[in-house]
Amino acid sequence: MLKLLEDSLKLQDYLVLGAILFVLIIAIIYIVKNRCKYSCNGCSRQDCKKRRK
Amino acid sequence: MKIALVGNQNCGKTTLFNALTGSNQHVGNFPGVTVDGKVGQIKNKEKISLVDLPGIYSLTPYSSEEIVTRDFIIKEKPDVVLNIIDATNIERNLYLTMQLLELDVPLIIALNMMDEVNASGNSIDVNKLSEGLGVKICPISASKNQGIDELMEETIKVGKNKIMPIHIDVCEKDSPVHRAIHAIMHLVEDHCEKYGLPKRYVATQLIQKDEILSKEINLSENEVDLLGHIICEMENDNGYDNEISIIGMRYNYIDRVVKKSVTIKSTQTKEQIRSSKIDRILTNKYLAFPIFILIIGLIFSITFGLVNTYISDLLGNGLNHLINIVHKEMDNADFNIVLISLICDGLMTGVFSVLSFLPTVVVLFFFLSLLEDTGYMSRVAFIMDKPLRKIGLSGRSFVPLLIGFGCSVPAVMATRTTASEKDKKLTLMLIPFIPCSAKLPIFTAVVGGFFKLDVLVILGLYFLSVALGILVGFISKLIKKSKPTPFMMELPNYRLPTVKNTLLLMWEKAKDFIKKAFTVIFVCSLIIWFLNSFDFKFNYVDGDTISVDSSMLSKISSFITPLFRPIGINDWRYCASLITGLTAKESLVSTLTVLYGSVDLAIVNVNTGQILAFLVFVILYMPCIATFAVLRKELKSTSLAILYMAGQTLFAYFMAMLFYGVSLLC
Questions:
Q1: How does pLDDT run across B28-57, given as a tens digit for each residue?
Q2: Which of B148, B385, B429, B623 could form a disulfide with B627 if both were Cys (CB 3.0 to 4.6 A apart)?
Q3: Do A17 and B347 touch (CB under 8 A)?
């Protein structure tokens, strides 16, 4: 099992882990939101959706 | 309401766009700065949007920019087309206007740079010009914000009331061109109605053998034959070929209109006279190359020598110190050891390794921005046209290749300014051969620790990579047997760069770089740390009770290690570094350091052949993931981007095998 889970995590660990997860989620949302930039010619998201339709 | 901003390259479209929308788009003194449409809202008029389209010289689809602009006007049908014209170059700028008039869309003309025209003592009778073209014209000076409000008012009026240009038959009555245009207009009448295209525009484009349009309107075989016959007859009667006949017709009309409305006292403006004087030295037959090499040498030595060695190193050391402090403090505060490893060895090391190169990237872009804003970059493209022609490219491809020495990502993006799709693809193929700045730490760490004459080996690697790129370009030219696209570029006047524009560009680059570090690199670092810190049973690999050889990364790397044996790589840790190098090339060094303790220890048990083969593979194999992402975007095809990357890696593999094989024989 993960040692991370084996050991009893303290409140401070949870806080740091929470902060990392928060940044990770923001980073993933940013990458996903901007994925459109990598698939078409730098247009706005609305244009992108319109083109896909 | 949607307004489309259309005009020649470098005529001030983006300056007008910024003035009208209040945005801060980068304005360059290099033709083709705007490579895709940018949308903005008109200041204080929220329901009116303005689209800044790429600069073009005609609507005949010679380049991708021309196709983008033409498609936008015809397919997106903006409410009004705002055609911006450089008044100091009125004849050439009006050529595009003649084609826009044929499109039969609500049109208004902004006559820009009127301040320069007046300063040179020339004058333009706007009313007579407007009468001659059958369209409303507003004189402005976008850079000095003169006449902008009046232009906006008139543009909205034209858009709201759908005011079309007055129809003027620009060809001479009963001339062969006139007969041909009207015959073709009758021939394609039904097709034009069906596809909603203006007849006259279609007729002139078909005479110019516009293949894209010809396919779009679906002409039958008989119609194509008839079309060929009409064009042939026109050429025989006129004594000129199809292109010259149409171009001549448009320029003859422009000439007549300009003669009536423009009074010329001086053929050149003050700016043009000053630029000609500077060009006598900078584009001189004998001095051009030495001056160029001197300037580039200076930029590279400051960027990679001074900034990379001192500022980036200082930042790198500072960031490492920060990691140590965080590690110590977390240890003292009794944080979970896995969490400490995740933060310090994974996230901070990964993100900071990239952030330490921020000064280098920003400074490189500062210099490139200076070259661009002064107008020197256009001259460089002009100087490099001849040598690049030998490998099937034109001068336009030089700028992306030059940027490639800094970073492949902006280099790939810069290929948008190349003249044709063929040039763009070949340039994209050659960019990975240009060693980017991220490879410098690899050379410095590995070569510096192994070879005594390290500078010569590093220079040799640079030379080898560029030489192989030239060879690939040459082979590609021989296979495709294609001639380079004709290179036509306007040399803009020399200008003093503005502080605002330069700072804006540096800020944009820094912002993009930091965003990338905290998003893509952050996620990649986390994944690499996870794979390196746990085994397949999710036990934490601490290096003492559980060996590093049990980690997922080790197992995965060991699985692919046999693939690298033919190039002399037998250790999974080298393979792991090659994999992590795909996220960012710099992480190749950090991976070797983490796995071996230091790069010096990593190269203890390898011989010269193995190290050379490894370096050759590293210098040539596929670029980082960020480059792949932009490559995919530029090629507009995932499969083609994968093919490019696979081809590049395969080439690197065979070259490394060749080096290793030769070393075994010696």
A1: 544 444 455 678 888 877 788 888 888 888
A2: B623
A3: no
The pLDDT of B248-268, averaged and rounded, is: 88
Q: Which amino acid, one-letter code, is at B352?
A: F
Helix (H) / strand (E) element for B45: namely strand B45-52
pLDDT digits (tens, 9 = 90+) for B272-317: 888 999 999 998 988 998 998 898 778 877 876 677 667 877 887 8
A-B Cβ pairs (cutoff 8 Å, strict): 67
Q: Which of A3, A27, A42 sits opposite B338 (nearest CB)?
A: A3
Chain B contact present for A20, CB below 8 A: yes
B380: amino acid identity, one letter: V
Nearest in space to B403 (alpha carbons), one of B425, B371, B426: B371
Domains contained in chain B, CATH given: 2-160 (3.40.50.300), 176-263 (1.10.287.1770), 292-438+450-485 (no CATH), 518-665 (no CATH)
Tens of pLDDT along B404-454? 877 787 788 778 766 677 778 888 989 999 988 778 778 777 877 787 666
Cα dist from B585 to B327, B387, B408, B643, B652, whole Å: 25, 30, 11, 20, 15
Instruction: Evaluate whether ipTM surpasses 0.90.
Output: no
CB contact under 8 A, B339 and A16: yes
Question: Residue A36: closest CA among chain B residues belongs to which residue?
Answer: B633
3-state secondary structure string, chain A?
Answer: CCHHHHCCCCHHHHHHHHHHHHHHHHHHHHHHHHHHHHHCCCCCHHHHHHHHC
Interchain CB contact of A41 with B (< 8 Å): yes
pLDDT at residue A42 in the model: 40
- For A31, the closest of B339, B520, B538 (CB atoms) is B520
Q: Give A12-43 pLDDT, tens digit per residue.
A: 888 888 898 898 888 888 877 765 544 444 44
* Nearest-by-Cβ selection for B339 from A13, A23, A44: A13
Chain B residue numbers with beta carbons less than 8 Å from the beta carbon of A28 are 523
Q: What is the pLDDT of residue B36?
A: 58
Q: Does residue A1 belong to the interface with chain B, where contact is any CB pair within 8 Å? A: yes
Least CB-CB distance to A38: which of B335, B518, B632? B632
- B539/A44 touch (CB, cutoff 8 Å), yes or no: no
Contact B607, B666 (CB under 8 A): no
What the block records as the tokens of B549 is: 């050889």
